[in-house]
Amino acid sequence: MALRRLLTLVALGGSASGFLVAPARPRARPLRAAEADNDDAAAPLSDDDAAAARASLERLMLAGAADGAERPVERSEPVAMSGTAKRRRAEERAHIEALGRARDPEAFGAAVTSLWSLWFSERGAKNKEALEEIDLMIGSGEACWEDASQAAAELVEVHPDWPEPLNRLATLKYLTGDFAESVELCERVLALKPHHFGALSGICMCHAKLGDDAAVAYWRARALPTDDDERARWAARALKAFDRQASNYGA
């Protein structure tokens, strides 16, 4: 039961950004790829990798968000990944595997935390800090949501292929009742990361608010399960999609 309660909190936190109730701080300016920190622990993707991901996203959106989220478009000419990008993908793959193996709250919580930390740091330490400040603004209440939306939109404009600012915008659209736009943002997240359990939870919540039972059923079948065995199968499917997506970049 403890693991089931933790899963429920993670699912809700995926759409509500795992709120941190704290006073909002002045937000940092989002850094462009050339400005982001180059430390090995939180290095951003290279410009080539970012351009390749952007092109992949555009093709996925044209092909249809729902299908694209499940089956990334195959590339006829794979684009080589940088060493940093390969290392980060290897880490992400290991965390997905750990999520599928988890059989107790501690192991599950560690896998979830590791994935969130990795996703937050995909554009360097300074941009991670800006994203964390957006979370603080979201958690500070409705009076800060306009500023949070502006800050998240700035990050999306600079890094359109980074899922986490998109997920924060989806959160804010949900909180303000714009469920249809939140769905679109969740679909963009899932086009980039089909296994993003936060966006999967969020899109289910949005479709439920919109009264679309068929869409709720479709996305709920793809959401992170609470049952251990079902979650192991979910992770296995996620890894297949993850590896297929990596092959598009020549990894």
Automatic annotation (TrEMBL):
Composition bias type Basic and acidic residues, residue spans: 68-77
SUPFAM superfamilies reported for this sequence: TPR-like (SSF48452)
Record flagged with keyword Signal: yes
Region forming the signal peptide: 1-18
The protein's name in its UniProt record: Uncharacterized protein
Organism listed in the record: Aureococcus anophagefferens (Harmful bloom alga)
Region feature Disordered, mapped onto this chain: 66-87
InterPro entries documented for this protein: TPR-like_helical_dom_sf, TPR_rpt
Keywords assigned: Signal
